[in-house]
Amino acid sequence: MNDTLARQLPAFIVDRVDFGIFAVDADMKLLLWNRFMQFHSGRKAEEVIVRNLFECFPDLPRKWLEKKFKGVFLLKNFSFTSWEQRPYLLRFGHDRPVTGGTEFMHQDCTFMPLIGASGEVEAVCVTLFDVTDTSLMHRELERAMAALKESANRDGLTGVFNRRHLEERLAEEFARYKRYGDRFSFLLFDLDRFKSVNDRYGHLAGDAVLREAAARVSACVRKMDVFGRYGGEEFALLLPATDLPSALIVAEKVRRLIGEQPIDWEGRPIAVTASVGVNTVRPDIPSYEALIGEADRALYDAKEQGRNRSVVFKPEPG
Amino acid sequence: MNEDLCLSEDQRDALQEVANIGMGQAGSALARLLDTFVALSVPRIQLVRVTELGKALADMVGSSCPVTAVRQSFQCDIRGEAIVIYGQEGTNQLWDLMGYEPADEPDAAAERELLVDVANVLVGACICNVFEQLGRSLSFSRPTVIGENVPVEYLMQPSALPWKVALLVEVNFSLRDRQFTSHLLTLMPEDSIRQMKRALDHFLASL
Questions:
Q1: Which of A176, A181, A163 is nearest to A226 (CA)?
Q2: Angstrom distance (rounded) from CA B38 to CA B25
Q3: Which of A93, A185, B24, B60 falls 20 to 30 Å from B87 in CA-CA distance?
Q4: Residues of A in contact with B139 (CB under 8 A)
Q5: CATH match of B3-205 with 3.40.1550.10
């Protein structure tokens, strides 16, 4: 390579690289504005060079950015901005006119001190990278992770929470009760003689009945309640901040919602009823599993007493 | 510990001197930037084994409260990483000092930006000034948050660290008019200790 070419090379690279480069002096006058900056800002170098950065671009967050530059001048230090915290420094369009997905270019910037012969910082050079693709990918990934987490918590047939999620939330609620004394109640219920629905109408009818029963209960629970399918024809409802009398009211409401109107399956009415076991936390319950076990005993009692009813678990006296 | 990693008495004195002067300059530069008095402790220099790092961190922070920390790497012929561990109040008192417009409820991204901005300024001021005296100008990486409200021992897992011995320089900051404290640790692993020893010898020879 000859000498002339070697001398031209740095200027050529600065001008033509595929990221923004600009520089300002201590008075915030622009010293350099490369082709990338010109193209994306729509401002030619000759329009902005030796003009004040903030006069050329009044939308910049002036107070903050001046402080940032001041830090680099005073401390002879690098500085940075990241799209994750501040999506852009200069609001540029993105170069996805076709595929879209965002309204502006996401940017990562690095501020570098140019130390002169005096040993002081005489200018600050800023590189500006277009990281739009990275940020969009990151957003997609976050969306996918959220969807995955949500679907891992759901029951495939009814769309309500599954047993895994119910138990997780119950464990959390139980820990909160142990630590802070926050009361809660728990309902376990199932559809009476569900096996006969399957036997008489077939499994598709059985599935439809489960879906409709779940939908009826879903429609009436509070936002903070956790309603899910515990398994088979068994459902559970966790009721935070709810004492026993209120829990019994909810239990009766659930029982009525399921049993009052027959469920329609392809024009045929299928009558189902539900039995409900009701339990609430007490200091002597050792674990959330024990709490479920007691609710299950109450549910069993409801069945024994003739079904289509709510029964509260009664601890042994003493 | 390898003999060749230990600093001679002269090297240690030189490093202490360079650190004292550098941190002093950093303090006055930070005060000019932030328009408030910045108090820095006398820097403490020690060689730490990776197995002792957890205890060194815990001693430095001095409480079991969860901490928030930011890391940043720096490089010339000597490479290392700086870690800023914030006190309990974090950077909540520093919004205006760093030029942020007041927001009623800053979002998590803005809070994180302030955390890294402050760390960047503390690290840059101290380390640039120390290394400048050794005739070196540094490049820095983008700072990143390594823990938010976590126990201090979660910040670094000794078993996952690629070094056995590091040179640790630590200094504490506080601001006179604000609730703000932080610890700055500079860690340089084996190869960088050897380079540092050469740089210190050179510095001593030039006196």
A1: A163
A2: 11
A3: B24
A4: 78
A5: yes
